[in-house]
Amino acid sequence: MFSLESGSGFWNPVLWVLALFILFLLFYGIRGFGKSTYKKGTEQTKVFLSGNKETSPEEMHVKASNLYWGFTTSMKSLYSLLRKMHTGNTSDYILWFVVVLAVVFLIMGVM
Amino acid sequence: MTFLETLLAHSPALVIATPLLSAFLVPLVGRISPRIRDIFALVMLGVTGCFIGLLASDVLSHGSRVYVFGAKNLSVPLVRILFEVDSMGMFMAIITVMLAGIAVIYSWSFLQKQDGLDKYYTLLLLVTTSALGMELTGDIFNFFVFLEISCIASCALIAFWVEEGEALEAAFKYIVVSSIGALFVLFAIGLLYAQYNALNIATLAHLLQFSFLDKIILVLLLVSLGMKAGLAPMHMWIPDSYGRTPPSIVLLIMSATLASFYGILRVIFTMYGNVLTTPLRFSLPAHLIIGWILIALAIVSILIGVIMALIQTDLLRLIAYAAVAEIGYMFLAIGTSIAALGTTYATVALQGGVLHILNDAIDIGLLFLVAGAIYFVAKKRSLDDISGLARNMKYTTVFFIIGLLAVAGMPPLNGFTSKFLIYESVYQVNPILSIIALLGSILLLAVFIKVFYAAFLGPELPELKDVKEAPRSMLLAMGFLAALAVCIGLFPNIFLDALVKPAATALLDHAQYINMVVGGL
Amino acid sequence: MIEYIPYIGVVAMILIGLYPILFRRNLIKIVIGISIIESGVNLFLIILGYRDGGVAPIFTSLPPGTTYPEEMVLPVPQALTLTSIVIGVAVLALMLSLVMHIYRKYGTLDVQKIRRLKE
What we know:
Chain A has five helices and two strands. Chain A has 111 residues and is mostly helical. Chain A has a domain of 38 residues. In chain A, strands 1-2 form a two-stranded antiparallel ribbon. In chain A, a hairpin with a 4-residue loop joins strand 1 and strand 2. With 521 residues, chain B is mostly helical. Chain B has a two-stranded antiparallel sheet. In chain B, strands 3-4 form a two-stranded antiparallel ribbon. In chain B, helix 4 packs parallel to helix 10, helix 11 runs antiparallel to helix 12 and helix 15 crosses helix 17. The longest helix of chain B has 35 residues. The radius of gyration of chain B is 22 Å and the shape is globular. Chain C contains three helices and no strands. Chain C starts with a helix and ends in a 13-residue tail after the last helix. Classes of the chains: A mainly alpha (111), B mainly alpha (521), C mainly alpha (119). Chains in contact: A-B, A-C, B-C. Chains A and B meet through helix 1, helix 2, helix 4 and helix 5 of A and helix 6, helix 8, helix 11, helix 13 and helix 15 of B.
């Protein structure tokens, strides 16, 4: 029922959703064992930021362009190459077309 | 003949004629009332959809159809145009008309306050006509004509926000790229005509010898249609033009792009289907070399698409780079299928690729519509200027989560079903390819989690305090695509058996396509 | 040898057309380049249609003594060329109007400076 054969394996989304649902019930049950005797409005419900002071949410929000800062910084050489490639110049778009055309011609043994 | 049979017999022509004629009726109807014009465009697309449905049900149960424009019996058998309708063409036509219908519904509210909407609907219907023509025609020159129509009409649509210089720049880049691509296609068509004195795809496929000139033709068609389909490193026009147009127009340009992709499939599998196994170079068969060229370009597309998407801050442009990566997945699938021609997993790869055309249209389309909704309410392009939208836009948030998971290939949504078929079959060719494909999916997930965090989570910005939910027609369009994404994700085998498998079989069975024309007519 | 000259001309026109597109900075020159490539392709289609000693395929004005239909020229390449010219005019008009509007917005026609959309 509803399964997808690929020749070497299969994928059944309905089974998968069922398994996910059972897992959810399981974890929900486990959650029930937790203590519910915390006191609202005390230190217990506050965010713990390694001892740093919590500021307003507007100041804590990380802007989109700063997300993945670590990844982009460590890949700096790759990114500078790609930025150089995407010049935005119309002539370069056609240059890439001509280059690909020439390379494929060479591989196919026309030239 | 009953009325229905007559209608069916002429529906290949009617599929083209209905949107074409209504395109030129739209300005007249717009004179009566803009409201009627909006509904008229949707109704005419619905009628086209009915013809496509009628034709598809017949093609899927009784095999392909040939429709003759011009003389039926002629001593000189060239002065006519044939439409050859098979399951693959029907599959693409269904996607095209679906995207166009959704674009119309979406633009009811999205473009409500813009002027020039008469021309907008005319061009919208023209792009639809041209994409449908490219998918149904059996004549290579006719294919070129429709390609040029789509190029001109989409260029005019890209320049829709004509007050912004960037839109004009994007339109100029688009028309330079696509008109040069189309001219090289025309040159290849001229070479084909010079050799075989024919323009019909089936006749050409029958006569093709894989001579020196045929290699040149193949390369010209592959590379120029690849550029129109957005294959890296010729993809740069995609972020420019997708990122600067209203999202409803992006859906249409995407359908034209997918039609070019269909052109590549038709050229390789049907036109060169007979000669794919001839030795080409270093005593390697041609299909191996062509397949690996496509695989290499596809890997470049996937990597460039996701890596560049990671650093974008303009939301529409970011999704456009994700679209480049998705196109890479389609090329990876067909490249694998060609490189491993004849094996069982080649068929699986082709099925995955064909299903991914549909999934790409749904997922990327949905994300563009959500991005458009954000732009509509917040009037901001950059992700840095928006945050905390989930508070006021609950439905849009849900649709974005569905789109995010689908485009990243997370189970159980539709993106996973086709990517699953692609991973499994690509693994048989080379495990490294499948690792790169998985890596691309993971990075796509990372990219869209960033968007989700930046746009929907976080604190409410003061200038976005009184943002409202997107209007109803936009929600309807997004909801339709999201529902399709979930449906295909949960019941993939229904779609696979009904639409994708016949389409893949039609592509692989080029002898049948050829015999429809060469034997009988 | 002499019959190859038109084909050499076609290739030359396509290469000449590519030169301004790739290396010239003025948008108008890029448009001219595209126009030259298009003329080259059209010339190619016209050459294909040439048949030595053929007559135009007009039934009512056939020269006396022609055998029908062997000596008539099949008009397919001419039809293709006409279609292609019409499309070319439309593309040319659209491109020039875009160039005009770009000049209004950017104040320049230098392709190196018209790149607000990049990366």
